[in-house]
Amino acid sequence: MSLSTQPFETDDAATKLPATIPSDLRPSWWQRLLVGLGLDKMPRFSLLTRLVLALAAVGVVPFVLSLYQINASRAAMVEQVQKTHLVAVLATADRLTDRIRALATDSESAARRLDALDASELGGETGAAILAELLRGRGDMLAAGLWRVDGDTPVMVQTARREALPEGWPRIVERADDALVAAYVGPDAEPWVEARIPFADDALAVVATSRLGNLDQLIRPEEIGDQVSMMLIGDAGQMLHGDTSAFADLGENLELLVTSEHLRSGVDQLTLQDGERVVAAFAEVPDTGFRIVSRQPSAVAEIAAQRQGRVALQAFGLSLLMVALIAGAAWRTVVRPLRALIARQRRLAGLDHSSGAELDDLENALERLEGSLEDRDAMTKVFLGRYQVVDTLGAGAMGTVFRGFDPRLERYVALKTIKLGELAGLQRRRLTQRVIKEARTLARLSHPHVVGVYDVLAEGDAAFLAMELVEGVSLERYLKLHAPLPMDQVLALARALFQAIDAAHQQRVVHHDIKPANILLGVDGAIKVTDFGIAELVGEAMESDLIFGTPGYLPPEVYEGHGYRPTADLFAVGVVLYQATVGHHPFPGKTANEVMVATLVRPLVSLRKHRTDVPEAFDRLVLSLLARDESMRPADAKSVLETLTPIIPADITWQPLSFTSAEETIDDDRIHASLLPTRRVEPPDGPRRTAES
Questions:
Q1: Active-site amino acid positions
Q2: 77 — phi, psi (to 5°)?
Q3: In the chain, what percentage of residues exceed pLDDT 90?
Q4: Which of 11, 54, 74, 168 is 20 to 30 A from 272, alpha carbon to alpha carbon?
């Protein structure tokens, strides 16, 4: 076991493979067909593609539908105007709904921040500051408060308000249902909106009260003619906004529209007492009990429909032009610069993986950088034993890796902590003894291609290891920048890796998790293997029947329950060399199950089919390392080195290319970088995997 300068990664939602493969996970004929055709990976939409689709959906599709409806039949003009009326009131209701739910969105952000505080902070200045910030962010908000709602009677914990609320407000805290948003007629006869955002444990909730306000901008019938009138009706049938006189002659018809309990929206032609016919429509505003009502004389229906047709045609053409112009401008001014910016931000923040969404990547990187700057000054005051903590290099499931300084020897080191606090007493002592024993073994393993261990200390709930600090990058990041590698680099890398594995195996040390992330490349040209035994150490700290390793680097016999032997390390090195040579993984998949199936049944493609400069002997060696049958692989690392010696020219040395790039490739291969728990499985039905010559 060895602990290194680079943290191993583990998936919090790690997928445990079942003891036997269920029938629905066994590769069926169509899965094999997809693999054979190379269609087992679905493409992801870029930001530009999503932008164009969104623009088309919002700006073009509605006009296409409107054109079809308007020109379908001249005899249906009145019916079309009725539908247009209904669309208008529904759109108005949607605008009101968006305004109402915006309060919930703003309140939810404040609730998340409050939920992260402890009890003293909730009732103190920190909680008050968050509520005050929420209040300042919305000019129409009356009050924002933190309420305890797990008892029979809600109790206010903290509040910020622009003006005092009348008695009985806020009303939403008294409701028996779980409504998050509600609207009422306020004491000033104006529409009021309230939002209730519960915490994760449902004991506390943020409650915000706001006036709806600015209704003139929301309730405007301009899109369907100047002879149309609209108004907002309250939950008790009272008029909240609009011209009451325009609806006085509807009489009982208006009452039917606003009091129906079974209809959420509707439109119809009504005959008034004086014989005039009008088109009337209504729509309910969700979560409020409010309704939008509109009316228009039928005499102008056909004129309005014709005008709509002309406007729709003009708008359709303009929408097509705008979509094209915006898409082109977005690519030049937003998407391309944003991708370059995100790549730089991710590198500065130490984020190896992309979420696939550019804006999410940017936000995550900025949050990481902000937290790093805040913690940097405090961190320099922390000591682990005699070692001063300088900076954080990374974190994993078992602990954190720091850049440290040894004042006694005046040199920088890597400090790795191994958390023991969650283990039982006896298990903790055994694991501590194992860490110390293995650290001593690796300290004696002095090899130029293995990260050195300088010191070990077990104290309290953690063990601390001081190790050689490698200034550079991992092979995982290097491959993202430069894969596939030049053939002389691949051969130099292969020689260094097998020399390191041979030295470790001679000391009876098995790595258990060889992958590009655990291979470090120094700026001085060094190649170092790190994290010996981490997977086995994690397995001992977890369930005893789990094998911990990274999918895609585990050999078939591990999946089948035959244990992890030294030849499994040779298999993993073969996978690394395959990636370095051709630029992609030999066993692709987006989940642990997909990678497992590919490892067991996917045929291997010869390296020389991808590039012709691969020596035939090296091609045969890599394919033999990846043989599914363990007995078909080389016996040990020493025999592999004997095979490599005549292949590698004596003058070949590792000459690293640059470690940075202006725009790093988006990583969508997280499953091949994550340490996951694996249970023994039964071999799947079908032929055993073979190599394609």
A1: 513
A2: -60, -45
A3: 15
A4: 74
